[in-house]
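Friendly challenge for the regulars: who can give me the structure tokens for this chain first? No prize, just bragging rights.
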Amino acid sequence: MKCPVTVIGLGPMGATMARTFLANGHPTTVWNRTPSKAAALVEQGAALAATVSDALAAAELVVISQTDYTAMSDSIGDADVKDRVLVNLSSGSPDELRRAAVWAGERGADLLTGGVMVPPPGIGQPGAYVFYSGPEAVLDRHRETLAELGDAAFVGTDPGLAMLYYQAQLYLFWSTLTAYMHAVALLGSAGVSAQQFRPLASSLLESLTGDGPMDFLRILTEEIDAGVFPGGANSLRMQAVGADHVVEAGREAGIDTAGPLALRDLFWRAVDAGHGGDGLAGVISVIRRPRPEGGA
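First reply, four minutes later:
Bragging rights claimed.
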């Protein structure tokens, strides 16, 4: 018999996880603060626990997918979690995850924190992966079961690391696609369709990580790790001036300029901090040392 699993939280993500475990032959117990959300899963073979204590008693491995980390402690309350492996795949801040690990440890449980890098329909599908942090030996013990959800990528023992990786990936994803939308809107003001622009955008994105001398992601990474940001003929000051022009073009086109303004201001802050002669990688200096909170 495959490893039994309990799933706590049956929103779109948790329900999909429970279905995935069921489809792969795992005896699956579910619990949700609104029991009616479990109806379809019960029809598919899940056992609905009457209480959170019953849910925790049903399996050593407890996968939690709720709104946030506060929901975990609120739901579990004083229920016995001793000798349980709590795998929390909810969202939160890294420090919240670290505090949750202490909370679980004080109650005799192990906490694995995770960040799921696909939307609900992607759970258990090819290409799905989940960042995990916490005790690696605990992950290894349950890796086969958790791999039903997606590739289990261990990133370190610090419980906050899974969320840091998760949020770093999300920020890169969102900001890249939002920049594309801004570019589409800018060109759209002159009657250029998104389909017309797409091949050029695709070519640019491929060049960022392509092999060869123009692999910008590799170049930027090496410069950041070395702490050396050669500007040469393409200084950050020149790029800040270019960013001024992107903002002005957006204003002339009548589109929202909040994103380009934020980028332009970041560039000029780096220039004002003495990095005008550096290359683009010099911007990392002000990102790592932001202005005081509340500063202009």
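The mean pLDDT is 95. The chain is about 50% helix and 10% strand. Your move, everyone else.
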